[in-house]
Amino acid sequence: MKDTPLSNCERDFLLKAIEEKKRLDGRQTYDYRNIKITFGTDYGCCFVDLGKTRVMAQVSCELVAPKETRPNEGILFFNIELSPMASPAFEPGRQSELSVKLNRQLERCFRNSKCIDTESLCVVSGEKVWQIRVDVHTLNHDGNLMDAASIAAITALCHFRRPDVSIQGEEITVVSAQHSTVCLIYCTSNLDPCEREERVMDGLLMIAMNKHREICSIQSSGGIMLLKEQVLRCSKIASVKVSEITELISKALENDKKARKAGERCGFAESMPQERITALKMDETPVEMKNVTEKAEDIVKKYEAPPQSVPSPLVPAPGVGQVGQGQQNSWGLEEEDGESEEEEEMVVEDQPKNKLDQGECCK
Amino acid sequence: MTHFYTKCFLIEQPDHFMIKIRVSNWQTVCKSTDISLREFGCEQNLLSRPDGSASFIQGDTSVLAGMYGPAEVKVSKEIYDRATLEVLIQPKVGLPSVRERSQEQCVRETCEASLLSFLHPRSSLTLILQVVHNDGSLLSCLLNAACMALMDAGLPMSCLFCGVTCAINSDGQIITDPTVAQEKESRAILTFAIDSTDHKVLMSSTQGSFSVYELQQCIAVCQKASEKIFLFYRDSVQRRYSKTL
């Protein structure tokens, strides 16, 4: 499905507004949208809402043989699914340019920054290691998928409980995430672009930083020329924002831990807002079953029993079976020659089919 | 695959006698007591990009549905007099596989039966369903979320539909809306899509072995349960368009 193209006057309006330091939704230049983090029912599932952009991450693990070049290390696998739900421009067949770019950035950001200690994922060196798979599903695209995806991935990884398998038994331990790495996106001069602003931008600067103020990765795309001061300024702002976001993530994890300990039900169901007019909940309801048995009996009685007898097969010649007689051609064709030919054909075709029928009857 | 267990009909005896045999067996085989549906929840219009979106929750099973349409369709997929409906089911972990394809077919057949697709020729309707958590009766949750998303998108439909799953456990008891644990212990799982006007079956998808009588009883049970679900649909839409909360 094609996306609606951006009109020229919209583009001009947005560019002019950015020049005057104004943004469509009233934010300041370096303001982030509201981030909301919720967790699912099982460990390792989390939802991130960045304004209207919505993303879901799920972590799962599996025991596999390790890579030959690295027999002592576990495997981390990231997969961002650009679901067609997020935007009409995303096609279900994968490998669009954007999806490749996002996957690559996420991998670089997490794998190279070593935020997960892969050696701790090893169970039997050279034979069995844990493969941790992070699936990020984009649910709604309103700009800045990269940030939302990275926040979701790191939160899900921190939330995940990996079963610890030893030869004797099983215990549960937390996957050790050494430090949270969060990506931040700038576009031209704005932080956290929304979808319209993203379409208008010429270039992008992405900085991935952790809370120790170490830059994990920087990427600039779009071919914009950046001055040294601009890059430094961006990284300073990034460090402030990253610490805010990291604090938010740890607070969300704490809340969830407390809720689980207290035995409350956690999950998507619980986090559904009750006060909204578009949401409704109904409790467990019993269903009346008064007439069910009688109704079912009636229906079965009404319908006739299936045909009692199946015509028995004839054997006109050894190796040939025939069940039933061929019927008169009822297609209403007037040529007699045509009819007789067709009858012969039908008889010839009947025989191999009848053989099959006979075979089935014998079974 | 379903196996139908039928009594042996090749005995040459008059019909009424056979029916009598069946009656005595029926009453001992199926008991239907304590049928209840899990907690339901629904939220509409929660995503800004799709034309219609809904999330449907049954107990712990939850599904998110998004709907785009009517929109431009690729020439290879266009149908000259109707809208082309495409259903995509995304599982939580991994890529979509054959199981998702068969579920997609079930959902698509049901939607096509109830949508008035003749009103939008040469257009495409795309329905995307994301499994958020699976705790049993997934197919019926997918159907319910699909119906709510279609309603939210404002697509013309001749009737609403809902999905109900029931499971027959080894004692012959019928359980509606089973959880994953209940599904594992049951010998048959049946899912029906029921329409709102005549309460007839639009689609059925079954797994396991059961008798003809059990099938009819399950259908009757699901029809009764669907009344509750349609009441829920009505309540949620009424709440949405009401002036007071």
UniProtKB/TrEMBL annotation, chain A:
A biological process from GO: U5 snRNA 3'-end processing
Subcellular location: Cytoplasm; Nucleus, Nucleolus
InterPro entries associated with the record: ExoRNase_PH_dom1, ExoRNase_PH_dom2, ExoRNase_PH_dom2_sf, Exosome_comp_Rrp42_subfam, PNPase/RNase_PH_dom_sf, Ribosomal_Su5_D2-typ_SF, Rrp45
A Pfam entry, by short name: RNase_PH
Start and end residues of each stretch annotated as Disordered: 303-363
Domain of life assignment: Eukaryota
GO molecular function, one term: mRNA 3'-UTR AU-rich region binding
Domain Exoribonuclease phosphorolytic: 32-163, 181-239
Annotated protein name in UniProt: Exosome complex component RRP45
Organism annotation: Periophthalmus magnuspinnatus
From TrEMBL, chain B:
GO cellular component, one term: nucleolus
Exoribonuclease phosphorolytic domain span: 37-156, 160-221
A Pfam family per the record: RNase_PH
Keywords: Cytoplasm, DNA-binding, Exosome, Nucleus, Phosphoprotein, rRNA processing
Any GO BP: poly(A)-dependent snoRNA 3'-end processing
Coiled-coil region(s): none
Protein origin, superkingdom: Eukaryota
GO terms of molecular function: DNA binding; RNA binding
Localization per Swiss-Prot or TrEMBL: Cytoplasm; Nucleus, Nucleolus
The protein's assembly and partners: Homodimer. Component of the RNA exosome core complex (Exo-9), composed of EXOSC1, EXOSC2, EXOSC3, EXOSC4, EXOSC5, EXOSC6, EXOSC7, EXOSC8 and EXOSC9; within the complex interacts with EXOSC3, EXOSC8, and EXOSC9. The catalytically inactive RNA exosome core complex (Exo-9) associates with the catalytic subunit EXOSC10/RRP6. Exo-9 may associate with DIS3 to form the nucleolar exosome complex, or DIS3L to form the cytoplasmic exosome complex.
Annotated family: Belongs to the RNase PH family.
Alphabetical list of PANTHER family matching this protein: EXOSOME COMPLEX COMPONENT, EXOSOME COMPLEX COMPONENT RRP46
Protein name, as recorded: Exosome complex component RRP46
Protein source organism: Periophthalmus magnuspinnatus
